[in-house]
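User: I'm writing a tutorial on reading structure tokens. Could you give me a worked example: one chain, its sequence, then its tokens, then a sentence or two explaining what the tokens reveal?
Assistant: Sure. Here is the example chain.
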Amino acid sequence: MEFSDAYIESFIQPRNALLMEMESFAKEHHVPIMQLPAIDVLNQLLRIQNPSSILEIGTAIGYSALRMAETLPNCSIVTIERDSERVNLAKEFIARSEVSNRITVIEGDALEVDVETIQSTFDAVFIDAAKGQNIRFFEKFAPLVPPGGILYIDNIYMHGLSDLDIKEVPRRKRTMIRNLKHFTDWIMQNPNYDSTFFPVGDGLLICLKR
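And here are its predicted structure tokens:
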């Protein structure tokens, strides 16, 4: 069953002026941010989990970090981004918000940053970065999440590419899609996590640590 865009949009929560400005900026400058239905689902899941700390891999311009911080008034967020231009933009947008005191932006490659020097554990990890690196991200940051914590991974569907035979995927994206499919097979068979795929936005994977 497919739902119309208008029907889906009727459930999207209203946003403040700053967030809508960021949405317009992202659209105009082709910055990938989480789709609105998906961020609403993520935030609802976070309300249920109620984490006090979140580690985000992939800040972009800070949109999802702001959305999560506004949803969870008692939560602190550490977010990592390697693109210096986006780091500067994220810091500018976050500084204009009312939740800037609870968001820490780190510039650097997430696979090289020693997050434990900042914080040793996180109740949740949100991965929204290079899709071909999901296993490496997971292996590095999952140990920071205690049993009962959750890892959220966005863009699992990759605009439908993940559902194609690899021969149908554009050649320049085949390695990334192979890695992404390998990751999904790996995590779904991992006995240390209860994992569920949510077909919302571009595909959201929820991994509850046992």
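What the tokens reveal: The chain has one domain: 5-209. The two ends are 33 Å apart (CA to CA).
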